[in-house]
Every structure is written in C-alpha cells, then in structure tokens.
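Predict the 3D structure for this chain.
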Amino acid sequence: MIKAFKHKGLENLFYDGTKKRINPQHVEKIELYKSERVAIMRIRKRRPTHPGNILKYDYMEPLHLSVTRLAECLKVSRKTISRIVNERGAVTSDMALRLSKAFQTTPALWLNLQKEYDLWCAENTSKDWDEVQPVEISGSMLA
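Done. Predicted structure below.
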C-alpha cells in the first residue's frame, strides 16, 4: 500500500494521470499498479454488508436502542429506520447526516457503505450495463 509519495510528479500521475516530468518507466509501473488494483477491487465475490446491518449490530444493539427510540432521536418515522435496519431501504444523504450526528461519525461513512452495497448489487444482479459500448468522440468535438 502506498502511504506517501516522495516525488510530487508520481503523486500527480497516480491520482490524476498527469505525466509531466516523469520517467516513462515510472509511468508504466504506476499504470500497471493502478490497473491491477482496479481489477482486484472489482473481483469482490461476497455482497458488501448493508449499512442497515451495520446500524443494527454495531450501533443499535450495543447501545440497547430500539427502532422506535432511534427513530425518535433522528426525528424520522419508525418505518424509515425499520426499512433500513431490515435491509429493505437505503441510507439517503439526509439519513447519513442524521446518523453521523447521532453516532458521531461522518456522513461519508454511511454513504460509502450504501454506495458499495448498491454498486455490488447492480453489477451482480443485472448484466445489461455490460453491453454498453463507449461513446466515440469525433475530433471536431474535442476542439
């Protein structure tokens, strides 16, 4: 795992693809590393944990919070919390803000959990997206 770059150019190449003032061999190695990393990340076989499951087992149970009590604390309906906890509903941006404030986490935690779950489900339940072809851009459109 890369923790820090000593060379600003390599860091730029890794994160945004800028190749200025970088040895071509380094460019090749970084691009190979990035492609392997993406391939490994996409091979996930197991469905990611639903954020409702994490809410239930990592927050509600240890704190002895009922669905009703959490709904009151978050100022939402009991049905909303029940749907999330029972993995029939998604964590929205609004809910992520409420959960982050209630449990002193970040909204990004809840949204990333939901995003990973949704993306995995989309990739593994339907293959229609796999038939989409890249849009060809003509030279006149680039000018």
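The chain has two domains: 8-42, 51-122.
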